[in-house]
Prior knowledge:
Blueprint: E1 2-5, E2 17-21, H1 49-56, E3 64-69, E4 86-91, H2 94-102, E5 107-111, E6 124-127, E7 130-134, H3 136-140, E8 162-166, H4 172-175, H5 189-199, H6 208-218, E9 224-230, H7 240-243, H8 252-255, H9 261-271, H10 284-295
Amino acid sequence: xxxxxxxxxxxxxxxxxxxxxxxxxxxxxxxxxxxxxxxxxxxxxxxxxxxxxxxxxxxxxxxxxxxxxxxxxxxxxxxxxxxxxxxxxxxxxxxxxxxxxxxxxxxxxxxxxxxxxxxxxxxxxxxxxxxxxxxxxxxxxxxxxxxxxxxxxxxxxxxxxxxxxxxxxxxxxxxxxxxxxxxxxxxxxxxxxxxxxxxxxxxxxxxxxxxxxxxxxxxxxxxxxxxxxxxxxxxxxxxxxxxxxxxxxxxxxxxxxxxxxxxxxxxxxxxxxxxxxxxxxxxxxxxxxxxxxxxxxxxxxx
Length: 302
């Protein structure tokens, strides 16, 4: 599932073309389970090769495109090269980011919210012999479109430094704690609302590869395109047609008061004309999607 926005209105990406990518029925499904910031398991481990090939080439005419991915470079079908979308490897640590930079891969990393408090500089850091440059938006307020005088740092494939982002978003404390699973900024706030809504849209005949190709081709020359405000390169195994085979509870006001899954599962079973003892007739991943939807507090689209 891919949502393409021609002109972002968000503060940091204002004026850029952007995309969101989600699984059908599960917003996290395109993200690899290996990502430390991902709070849920979807058994995603493979890159969608058709989409990867297309997004690599989804660059506006005479423009720039970039994305961040938690799939390690060893799994990429091809390396960064001029004229194509720049893949930034989202490393789990500064040493990992430095390691990949030394091997020619554009990389980024996230640090805890208090990381800069005791540093001599709040703009640069190092890991080994490699310098890390803090996202310029954090130190100067510049947005992505004006970063690097119109050539964003993250859109430079051959840079010899990694970019550092300070943990942000509703789960920023978790993002800076390596012992806690989760912390992705896209898991909360407006980004999560857009992302979850996308995951619940009906599937279309066009693939994500076809959509992103058409989108990039239609953009104005010299545009900057940031792929994946939320989402990643992962293969989508669940389709909307499977999700929509099952009925959902209709009493949202009641379901949001439930403190455990049993009562909600009773309503799911009732909606589908079966007893709670037979709820296992519904695939577990479908039940978990419905649970997450109602427990998440978003009933705008169903």
